[in-house]
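Annotated sample (chain length 453).
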Amino acid sequence: MTNPTVYVVHCIDTEGPLHESLQATFERIRHIAGVSLEATADNLRKLQNREIDLNGREEAVARIVAPSVIAYKDTWDKIDAMLDEIMSAEYRQKYADPSGQGWIYNWFAVDHVGFADNPRRRDMGYHNIFDHYRERLRTGGPASSRDELHWHFHPMSTYKEAHICATSFLNSPHLIETLARRVIERSWFPVCFRPGFHAERPDSHWFLEMWVPFDFANQSMSRRRGDGSQRDIEDGRLGDWRRAVWDWSHYRPAHDDYQREGACNRTIFKCLNVGSRYRLLDQTEVDLAFRRANEGLPTVLAFTDHDYRDMRPDVEYVYGMLKEAARKYPNVRWEHAGALQAARQALGLRDSAPLKLEAGFERSEGALKLRVRTNKDTFGPQPFLAVQTQDRRFLHDNFDFQTPRREWSYVFDRTTIRPESIERIGIAANDACGHVAVSLFDGDGSPVGQTSF
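Output written by the structure step:
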């Protein structure tokens, strides 16, 4: 059965306020484009207007410092003023799809934690950004009911500088604690993911394979524009998707190459940038997605920007391109969608049964044994085990496998985690359809609560 539908997914790398001084802007120009100039407002204006000879790099630098790109919202008040408008029912309906569904946002929230240097004044702390948007969705009424809240992650830089890009999950000590705290303190676990700096590597690839079904990361393009003149992304340094499919297909990656199609668990979707300086969504790319759908193939058209920039021009820009593509391909339907909703539709996932976790504890001399089973196969090989100790550490460990994807056990004792040190235990899992189950227990094994969504 064919499905000539384009699912429009507005992903937002949700990172909270961001400040950048004039001096920092010129340091970034030097790092990205190799251009060293005195940090003055006049030079900035000239760069924006392409009035300084840069030996062919004028256009690239102008994109880096475009007024819309560097007009950062550096306080929550400024972000909230924008959110008050764009999350309103009136604004959403202004950009409704042909069925009348208003604009939908997907908030991929990051935690800024563990950094020693924070010159961009990011909001530091576990859950700070997640909680801000969760509350906005909770109080936003029916207009916000179809928005989705997902996971974004920034790997730790070598010198723990919050404004520096990095790619390694293995070098990121806050990775496990971020997820463990999300499970234990918020009864939540991710089902969709957006990579920080658009970058994945083997360690993040294999980590995601264990738990996260849907990955909005691929930035392969039919035509590359300007990457070579921006040194921080050349040769695949950040966001390397040069070998991935570029026709808006989704795919399951290969074990040894996340850019090639294979037999791994998760599905990777293409997601280009708007309101930024490279790998930009344009009319050619939107038309390409509609052309694919015109062949009867359900197509996810995802794009991403940041909450610390004004997103209103991005919404208007994308909407205009959607209308133009629809004029060219009148047989293609298009609709706004949440990331999870779009993934399910594009993959034909129809299982409506919730995922359920059952857990039991057995106590013996010096040990506490946990047994876990599910009512159907989990997405990855095991649930996520999170443990909060009484001294406020958040830990994770592997289960022992009894029946793959169905039943596991874990023994708390002196060789793993001493039972008497445990404050709370959390268990979280997804299934292949993106159903989530979270179960919480006190340190003695007493149930605290269960959540399914």
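Annotation: The longest helix spans residues 312-328.
Annotation: The longest strand covers residues 5-14.
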